[in-house]
Design a protein that fits this description.
Number of helices: 12
Oligomer: single chain
Number of strands: 13
Shape: globular
Largest sheet: 7 strands, mixed
Strand order of the largest sheet: 1-9-8-5-4-2-3
Order of helices and strands: HHHEHEHEEHEEEEEHEEHHEHHEH
Structural class: alpha/beta
Length: about 375
């Protein structure tokens, strides 16, 4: 068996330290907003390269909190990608705004060339999604936002540690370019907790202050509420675990990149559509390794028969979800996202994979496609 993600293998080298961290929280009895929270937030802000980081209850709530803090609500529009996890659009709708879907390019991230045509007087923000561990093409997105006075919310749920080479010569980390960056620490992420968790990051003092108030029901002082917020706190136990795991995050990234390089070499010239990585000095951290295959069902059947994990991210683009029928989108409105949804397949990429396991995955794919791969037995 080769699972899509092997948390057992991931925790083998750090389990004692993780359990000690959990035990420390239990011993302290500081379960809510204990000292592990600011300690983790400080380490995360330094890692991302921002002034402020706030731990929150999930990646979904990170998006919701960012939208609330930026004053986006009823009657507003937010431009975003149709090729993402549901929370991207769901959070927009939950604050009363309308998602406006703009098609993706071959990196699975929003196509900046299509954004400006969708801006209306109701548009208040752009929410690019850094998908599968790669940042969206942020320079043109930031330029469009500046021209039109729009906020930028980075959905970086799958991209902590990914980087973008800007035209200004700087390399930016995910979550450091827009007004707010939003992260998820769901266990499957490169930096995953032991349950739900997330974070928001920002360089803006005003927005950080608002988010800090909103995440505790809009109260600066307990029981005195200046606005309506929510219960968006990160648990202390999650922060303690994430502090341990953050120390090894770069090693996780590098191992995933090495595995992806191996896949790229072995799957070249086989007819498999490989991940497209934007050039320059950026970095993709491979939260998923996503290929495209023509006969996806045949490949999945073969992988299932051989006990090899796989998943489809995402089978139905957001603009074609039944709950958004009222927005009026039709088949063909986002052709790249729609085509990708019918062909994408994610395969194991986690850091602990052995060469034998990687070879077994490749053989499963290529045998289903009836092609041979030199050097893999």
């Amino acid at each position: 068996m080769i699972p899509l993600l092997d948390l057992q293998a991931q925790y083998e080298g750090i389990e004692d330290e993780v359990m000690a961290a959990i035990g420390g929280v239990v011993a302290s009895k500081h379960f809510i907003m204990g000292p592990d929270i600011p300690a983790f937030e400080s380490a995360l802000a330094q890692y991302v390269g921002v002034s402020h980081a706030l731990g929150v209850s999930s990646g979904t709530d990170a998006l919701l909190l960012a939208l609330m803090a930026l004053g986006i609500g009823a009657g507003d529009e937010v431009i975003t990608s149709p090729f993402s996890f549901f929370a991207t659009a769901g959070a927009i709708v939950r604050v009363g705004a309308t998602p406006v879907f703009v098609d993706i390019d071959d990196t699975y991230t929003i196509n900046p060339a299509l954004i400006e045509a969708r801006i209306t007087p109701r548009t208040k923000a752009i929410m690019p999604v850094h998908l599968f561990g790669q940042m969206a093409n942020m320079d043109p997105i930031m330029a469009i936002a500046k021209r039109h006075g729009l906020a930028v919310i980075e959905d970086a749920a799958q991209a902590i540690g990914s980087r973008y080479q800007s035209q200004d010569g700087r390399v930016y980390a995910a979550g450091s370019m827009g007004d707010v960056g939003c992260f998820s620490f769901f266990p499957s992420k490169n930096l995953g907790g032991i349950g739900d968790g997330g974070a928001v990051t920002t360089q803006r003092e005003d927005v950080a202050g608002l988010m800090a108030i909103l995440r505790v029901h809009g109260a600066q002082e307990r029981y005195y509420h200046t606005m309506v917020g929510g219960n968006f706190r990160l648990d202390s136990i999650q922060a303690a675990v994430l502090r341990v795991k953050l120390k090894g995050l770069e090693a996780q990234h590098e191992a995933r990149i090495q595995n992806a390089t191996w896949y790229n070499q072995q799957l070249a010239h086989t007819g498999v559509g490989l991940p497209v990585v934007r050039g320059g000095g950026g970095r993709m951290i491979y939260n998923q390794y996503t290929i495209q295959v023509t006969d996806r069902q045949a490949v999945m059947d073969t992988l299932s028969a051989q006990g090899i994990g796989h998943a489809i991210y995402y089978p139905v683009p957001l603009h074609r979800q039944a709950c958004f029928d009222g927005l009026g989108y039709q088949a063909g409105d986002c052709p790249v996202a729609e085509s990708s949804a019918g062909r994408v397949l994610s395969i194991p990429i986690y850091a602990e994979l052995t060469t034998d396991q990687l070879s077994e995955v490749v053989l499963g794919i290529t045998s289903a496609m009836k092609v041979s791969v030199q050097g893999v037995k």
